[in-house]
Amino acid sequence: MQAYLETLTATHTAHSFLETAARDGITFREPRGHPDNKGQSLSAVHPVIRTNPVTGWKGLYVNKFFTKRINELTVDESDHLLAYLFGLVTDNHDMLVRFRWTKDSVAIWDNRSTQHTATNDYARKVRWGDRVVSVGEKPYLDPSSLSRDEALRLTGEDDE
């Protein structure tokens, strides 16, 4: 399955951002990050498995809110495989972190290998924050890259 996933690409679209921008009369600056990131469609094709350029590790690169279709499959096949992959990401409690915000908290993560969601657990309190996004690169898969588990096993740093 892992080797098969490395042969696939997926279309990612930020429809919710487009709807908000249209409602508020916002256009997007170009290019955004990578020079190929142009246009107002906010749609791109990326590998399903990508390599993180900092760690060198490959990982699953799908997101329930942005990944719309696996391009090499029929619509039905794509829908079923994406449902399975989304479940791997959202239902795997070994990969979850619960960050509890307190005054002056700072949370930093790498969107290339981390997904996040806001939990509506703050009752009627006002929650305010700034999001800072670095300039991104074009996602790619280096076929010689290893998964985190494979890399740690080679160095003897795995948990087992």
Runs with pLDDT <50, length 5+? Answer: none
Number of self-contained structural domains: 1
Radius of gyration: 18 Å
| Structure class | alpha+beta
Number of helices: 4
Summarize the amount of helix as a percent range.
10-25%
Distance linking N and C termini: 23 Å
Word description of this protein:
The protein has one domain. Strands 2-1-5 form a three-stranded antiparallel beta sheet. The protein has a three-stranded mixed beta sheet with strand order 3-4-6. The chain starts with a helix and ends in a 5-residue tail after the last helix. The chain has 160 residues and is an alpha+beta fold. The model has no long low-confidence stretch (mean pLDDT 85). The protein has helices at residues 2-5, 15-24, 75-90, 148-155; strands at 9-13, 43-47, 49-51, 57-60, 67-70, 146-147.
Question: Top keywords for this entry?
Answer:
three-stranded mixed sheet, 4 helices, 160 residues, 6 strands, globular
